[in-house]
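Hi R.,

Here's the chain you asked about this morning:
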Amino acid sequence: LTVLLLPLALLAAPARGEGGTAAAEEVKIEVLHLPEACSPKSKKGDLLNAHYDGFLASDGSKFYCSRTQNEGHPKWFVLGVGQVIKGLDIAMMNMCPGEKRKVTIPPSLAYGQQGYAQGKIPPNATLIFEIELYAVNKGPRSVEAFNQIDKDGDKKLSELEISQYLKEEFARDGKKRHPSAHDEILADIFKKNDHDGDGFISAKEYNVYQHDEL
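And here is the predicted structure, written out as tokens:
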């Protein structure tokens, strides 16, 4: 999984809920199973791997099951950055690998007054999710990932450093790619991240998911 740019398998959440200022306590969390070893706990910016089922609170009907998607593989997504609805970003904080939760999310932290017709979610729907978390990994924009790529420790990523990192990642996952894929991805990374056009990706340009000091 290339941490800079390659696509993540996202949960189905093309819309953010209305009322984004709602308090976290509006999400009701019931812990169904808590393993004895609970480490590391999830935090904003972490890359999570989870299965989940979604139900309408009004009648209990299931509107989504991750096990029937993507050949049954658990979903990968980055926590706390809007890749899922706000209620799930809140509900899955401080969760440990192996933990199971049942969470109830109000409309203001789900799909609001508009609903989500494609997902068979009506307007003003309260949602219930049953979640099983499998893995908590350092996210793609973590300090650790930056330092891993920054071989010379100058707090900025050169084209050579990122090129080398891509080669290592491609070798690690073993997938066959067209020879041009490396150059295309490298060019796209700089196009989307080198905002000042100086030929380097600075810590500030890179570190969009967390605000750790580098």
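One quick note: Residues 1-25, 208-214 have pLDDT under 50 and may be disordered.

Cheers,
M.
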